[in-house]
Write a structure and sequence with these properties.
Blueprint: E1 2-11, E2 14-22, E3 31-38, H1 45-62, E4 67-70, H2 76-93, E5 101-103, E6 118-121, H3 126-138, E7 147-154, H4 162-177, E8 182-188, H5 202-218, E9 226-230, E10 257-261, H6 267-275, H7 278-282, H8 302-313, H9 330-336, H10 339-355, H11 362-372, H12 377-389, H13 392-396
Parallel strand pairs: 1-4, 4-5, 6-7, 6-9, 7-8, 9-10
Antiparallel strand pairs: 1-2, 2-3, 3-8
Helix pairs in contact: 1-5, 3-6, 8-10, 9-11, 10-11
């Protein structure tokens, strides 16, 4: 794989990084990659090279390219770290026999850091809200460790429309401003151009989501020196994944450190943190489905229902205005719940539901748990699909709850 024509340019109030990607060992057509930042930001040749180095390394490895070469030098710290990241991914998933050759030059001098600014990625979801709120509890307003900028990126997920993204970020921009935080939005095609070659989001979820986020931040290193990627897992259920405490720091350069944040918090603990903040609770956005008018969330998907269940357990759902309904019904939980995804979230919340007098939700959780352990007819169907059909039913009818594929873990 060759990355050439790396450059940046300013278009009115936007900064755009560009690069040309050409495959060498695959018959795929070449691509023009970009990262577009909305706002008057400063760029550098090194930042652009670092960004596209991260963006290209993993697809070059997983699709069997013999080498990756760039026509511009990158940070030597990042060059070393990317090698470690690729080794971790190959160790976890046995993606190839021979390592990817990184034919990449490095710069001889470090660039001066303009400002010490901590940032985090922000979608308005449970993980990103918890990271922001917890950070602001831990660091005083004048401390460089306090998050002062958040980043929201369009183009890394299927299903979300540009209209939905723009509407949500317009609201969230005003919301985080109340916390003294600037929301920076960006758009990119660094994953979109090979998204269709990634059925079931296998490479995205297991190898690329942390890298894609880090690449966007590395494009503007003069704007920040530390960026946090909110963990989507608790340490007790941690598994090899595309954003991981061993992996995310490997996308750090000398000028910009990337950290995996809040691995010690369960999703219920994060939801409790949000429930304690009226501002966050009123603007929690957990799904990317187009919601009904006047709401942030659809209320009819697994992530919505799981969040509603936790808010019920915390006594914070009623009156929140987050979903089209403010009471979780057993039939809704049974229809949209799926413990194949995050079964510990359901089990950890059950005692709180009982304390809230929601005994009617116990039976649906027990049924979902039995399905997750594959002890009923639906479990038999899933086993037969895996063993005899190679997962064809799950891929073909993935929208059906008991056959659904693992969801994207949002920030």
């Amino acid at each position: 794989m060759r990355i050439t024509q790396i450059r940046f340019e300013y278009e009115q109030e936007e900064l755009v990084l560009h690069a040309r990607l050409d495959w060498e060992d695959n018959a795929y057509s070449g691509e023009d990659l970009f990262v577009r930042y909305h706002g008057a930001l400063e760029a550098s040749a090194l930042g652009a090279a670092n960004a596209f180095f991260i963006a290209a390394a993993i697809p070059a490895m997983v699709f069997g390219e013999a080498r990756l070469t760039l026509d511009q030098p990158v940070c030597p710290t990042l060059r070393r770290n990317i090698g470690t990241a690729l080794n971790w991914l190959n160790h976890w998933f046995a993606l190839r026999d021979q390592p990817l050759e990184l034919e990449v030059e490095t710069v001889e001098a470090a660039e001066l850091q303009a400002a010490a600014v901590t940032a985090s990625y922000f979608s308005g979801g449970v993980d990103s809200w918890a990271t922001l709120l917890r950070n602001h509890r831990q660091y005083a307003s004048g401390h460089p460790g306090r998050i002062r900028r958040c980043m929201s990126v369009y183009g890394l997920q299927r299903g979300i429309t540009r209209e939905n993204f723009d509407a949500a970020t317009a609201v969230l921009q005003e919301v985080v401003a109340q916390l003294g935080v600037e929301l920076l939005t960006a758009e990119t095609n660094i994953y979109r151009h090979w998204m269709d070659r990634d059925p079931g989001f296998f490479y995205w979820t297991r190898t690329y989501n942390g890298a894609a986020l880090a690449a966007v931040a590395q494009g503007v290193p003069s704007q920040l020196n530390r960026v946090l990627i909110a963990s989507s897992d608790h340490m007790r259920s941690m598994e090899p994944w595309g954003t991981h405490p061993l992996l995310d720091p490997c996308f750090s350069s000398h000028d910009l450190q990337v950290e995996h944040d809040s691995i010690d918090m369960s999703r219920l603990q994060k939801t409790r943190e949000i429930a304690g903040s009226p501002l966050a609770l009123a603007h929690l956005r957990v799904c990317d489905v187009q919601p009904p008018p006047g709401f942030f969330n659809c209320g009819a998907c697994e992530k919505c229902v799981r969040t509603m269940m936790m808010l019920e357990g915390l006594g914070a759902l009623r009156g929140s205005g987050l979903f089209p309904v403010d009471r979780l019904e057993p039939s809704t939980l049974l229809r949209y719940g799926n413990m194949d995804l995050e079964f510990e979230d359901y089990l950890e919340t059950l005692p709180l539901l009982l304390e809230q007098g929601r005994e009617d939700l116990q039976r649906p959780i027990e049924i979902l748990h039995r399905r997750q352990r594959e002890l009923d007819f639906r479990g038999l169907l899933k086993r037969l699909d895996r063993r005899l059909l190679g997962g064809w039913l799950r891929r073909r009818y993935g929208h059906v709850g008991y056959l659904s594929a693992p969801a994207q873990r949002g920030r």
